[in-house]
Every structure is written in structure tokens, then in C-alpha cells.
Amino acid sequence: MNVEKKEKKRKTILVIIFIAAGFMLGIAIGFFAAHNAPAKTEGGIGFTVVPENNLNDSHAENGVTVPGITSMSVKAGSDRLVTGFYNPVENKDKYYLTFQLWAEINGKDELLYTSGLVEPGNSIYEIKLNKTLEKGTYNAVIHIQPYRMNKDLTPTNNADIKAVIKAV
After folding, report:
1. Could you please report the per-residue DSSP string of 67-126?
2. pLDDT of residue 125
3. Greatest CA separation found in the chain?
4. Are 24 and 96 members of one domain?
5. With 60 as the cut, is the pLDDT of residue 130 above it?
6. Number of domains in the chain
7. In terms of domains, do 98 and 143 share one?
8. Alpha-carbon distance 129 to 85, whole Å?
């Protein structure tokens, strides 16, 4: 082989290596982002619950912001569920949230999960259910209880969000 062909081959190999390295870096960044981002759920549009003492006040800044979650998926037979439970940053210095997940199973409402206090800006990515779910679609309710950030952790108005759990 002459020097010109060797140089061309070397450049081609270097280009392939750089392309492969860039591709692998992209996969690594995507994997990292997917595993560190809030869980995706259908819905996701939040709303504000106005505290009792502000029922006639339409200013959202006086209320509790809660996440809107309408659908979640779980692997049938698993007790691990990826959630979109989070306390929006808009509640900073105002409210903690707790979450309960209820589902209708065989005609009865069953409590599947209860969280502890979730600080504003924090999320619960995965929960351990009290029981496994067989394949199917379950009507669910996510009960969200806000607590004022005071020494007594005073509970305020709560929200019940209708949702669906799909066990696949």
C-alpha cells in the first residue's frame, strides 16, 4: 500500500471511531437523563387547591399547587410502580404534600400506597405497592393531602385525582 492510501484509511478509521464515540455518548446522556428525570405519566397538568380561608380569593399564589396525574403503568405481577408523584416547586416555603394511591380491585377500594411528607421540588419516582396487580386496567384515586409548613404541620384542603393504573 502506498502512503496516500494508508493515510486515507487511517482518517476513515478515525472518523468511524469519532462517530461511534459520539453515538455512545448520546446514548449515555439519554440513559442518564431518562433515569434522573421525573417519571412520565399521562396528564401532568397541575392545578391549584385554594385553602379554606381563601375560598373567595381567586389568587393562585394563595393556594396549594398539586400535580395532575391521570395514568400510570405497572408490570403485571410486580409490586413496583413508577409514579409521577411530586410536590411542585410553587409550594416552596408553604406546603408539604403526602400521597395515597387507591384502586378499585374486584369491586372494592384498596389502599395500595401511602407516602410520607414530600418537600416542594421533590418527587417520588418509584413506589412499592401493598400488593401486586394482575394484568388489566384499574380505576384509581390519588389522594393528595397538603400540610402547612408550620410547627403543627396543619393539614389543609385535599385533592382526589381520578386516575387509571394499567397493569401490562
Report:
1. --EEEEEE-TT-SEEEEEEE--GGGTTTEEEEEEEEEEETTEEEEEEE---B-TT-EEEE
2. 85
3. 87
4. no
5. yes
6. 2
7. yes
8. 14
The enclosing domain of 67 has a CATH number of: 2.60.40
For the chain, what is the mean pLDDT?
77
Separation CA 39–CA 123 (nearest Å): 9
| 106 and 23 assigned to the same domain | no
Cell numbers for 40, please give them.
412520565
Q: Residues with Cβ < 8 Å from 119, sequence gap 6 or more? A: 87, 96
What is the extent of the structural domain holding 112?
A: 41-167
Measured CA to CA in angstroms, residue 111 lies from 23, 45, 128, 143, 147 at distances of 44, 24, 12, 10, 20
Residue 2 pLDDT class (50, 70, 90 cuts): confident
